[in-house]
Amino acid sequence: MKDAFGAPQSLLVLGGTSEIGLATARRLIACRTRTVWLAGRPSPALESAAAELRGRGAYVRTVDFDALDTESHETTLGKIFTEGDIDMVLLAFGIPGDQERDEEEPLSAVRVAQTNYTGAVSAGLVCAGALQAQGHGSLVVLSSVAGERARRADFIYGSSKAGLDAFAQGLGDALHGTGVHVMVVRPGHVQPAGMAVEGPLATIPFTRTPLVTTPDAVAAAIVTGLRRRSETVWVPGALRAVMSALRHVPRPLFRRLPV
């Protein structure tokens, strides 16, 4: 259950090496979260992340989880919930793919879609059912501004996030009134802290500030959104207005925009 300050006492991160997932875990541990599950493929990075969070005072366990192995999700994730209630699930896994390669190699494109959408649908439904059975909890789904409107530069990734976003919104409606809170998070271009903005975004003066964010900024917005029980969170908040405008730009003109 959440404590008197509204912070979850237990957290499950699906995508245990995700920068956003780990930044969120750090913030929640500082807010009295005491038990953290990191679910991901076995790797030194996963163990290193667990050790770092333990150093912050949390009880941390890792679990083998593969987004593409959907047949294992019910068993793997179900075992976690048998260990005790989970107050918050953060669905943070996903891959960006490589647009140029994925267009030439359809199987690579399928992997992006299966990871970002099919795997997320499977894991999301399993966790939603477990949260509903325990009668409380939050499911936070990392979507992306890329899913708001398909761009030539990343329409394969963007389409997978568009599907995930629609799924999460519908799931939130389905769970309304059950005690389970679903929150969709739509970050802009996430730039690791300390790195300069590179690529197409760096050349667009009017979008440089509203479209670029960092893992820690997304984590801060997630914690605030949890406290407010928000259903949709944009990071940065200015993205809401930017995307509202871009959604209505005629396609012939949109194709010419450097976004």
Strand order of the largest sheet: 3-2-1-4-5-6-9
First and last CA, distance: 42 Å
Structural class: alpha/beta
Tell me the β content.
Answer: 15-25%
Estimate the helix proportion, in percent: 40-55%
For the sheet with most strands, the description reads:
7 strands, parallel
Could you spell the SSE succession in H and E letters?
Answer: EHEHEHEHHEHEEHEHEHH
Approximate shape:
globular
Structure explained in plain terms:
- The protein is of the alpha/beta class.
- It is built from 10 helices and 9 strands.
- Strands 3-2-1-4-5-6-9 form a 7-stranded parallel beta sheet, sandwiched between helices. Strands 7-8 form a two-stranded parallel ribbon.
- Helix 1 packs across helix 8 and helix 5 runs parallel beside helix 6.
- The radius of gyration is 18 Å and the shape is globular.
- The N and C termini lie far apart (about 40 Å).
- About 5% of the residues have low confidence.
